[in-house]
Amino acid sequence: xxxxxxxxxxxxxxxxxxxxxxxAKDSFLSLRNLQARFVSTEYYDPPFSPLSKPAKPxxxxxxxxxxxxxEPMTSPTAPVTSDLPFDFRYSxxxxxxAIKPIGFREPKxxxxxxxxxxxxxxxxxxxxxxxESDQRQWAVVRDKIxxxxxxxxxxxELVERYRHSDCSRQINLGKGGVTHNMIDDxxxxxxxxxxxxxxxxxxPTLDMDNICHHLEEKSxxxxxxxxxxxxxxxxxxxxxxxxRPTIPLMLWKxxxxxxxxxxxxVADGLTFEETKEMRNRGLxxxxxxxxxxxxxxxxxxxxxxxxxxxxxxxxxxxTHVGMSDCKRIGVKLKDLxxxxxxxxxxxxxxxxxxxxx
Length: 357
Fold this sequence. Notes:
It contains eight helices and ten strands. By secondary structure, it is α+β, with helices and mostly antiparallel strands. The termini are far apart. It comes from Brassica napus (Rape). Residues 148-246, 268-357 form the CRM domain. This is CRM domain-containing protein.
């Protein structure tokens, strides 16, 4: 307290300077801690991460006279050539080549394989195979890959390994049926597994024989197990992943063409009044079955056939199934039962057995 006034002022200034430096240091440390908190690996946020610098191109080494041979030129845009002897369709099991469309929803030049990626022309429904392809040669190659028939012990071992629901080698088959890209998925599974488990749901399960036929024909494998809607597809003894067939992929789902109307205003063999009366009877009749969305319909055809032995009209309750699936079911039942669909209303399917000869 005995210091002069000038010394007191200097001391105060020194203390204030030290205090401001301490505050600046604390704020700097707090900012560093905050930065480390959000930039650390624990709180790393990819959407806001900094862009990585582009890698520098490798330096080109000088080629010797022996290495200066011309390299083969490969064009990435060259069309893919496939020797498979069948027409490429979006779905093989859910389309009938015998029914010709009456119109198309998009021009035929829009190929789902992409422009210039396939050496086949797209007709609006399929990419036809070349005339040089031979079905008999494909059958010979398939038999060679399958090799000798499996013994009962080998079949039992395969089935026990792949039939369970926790199998990692599984493909789900939905309302699209056996699609073109599914064939490529099957071969991808066959790279590391002898067989693949296929779980079928929805409209295709109305005709499981058709599914099995197309799976074996298009993939070249053999179905060794079939239980309701579960299949096990075996690749063959002599299968080689390196020599698998070339399967060009569809880049998008093509628009389905326009087909003739399924339900006519007047059913064949009936008058307008009789058709109307038959529809009213069907709407007020008890439902034979209640179908669920993406269900298993393996017993529907048999139940409808049995009901037609005593009844003339059958109603199927398809609530929550969807109108598009209802029409797909009607198309299949028309050929499998056979019968005549006379009404689709409020997700109800009315079937008439037709005139008995």
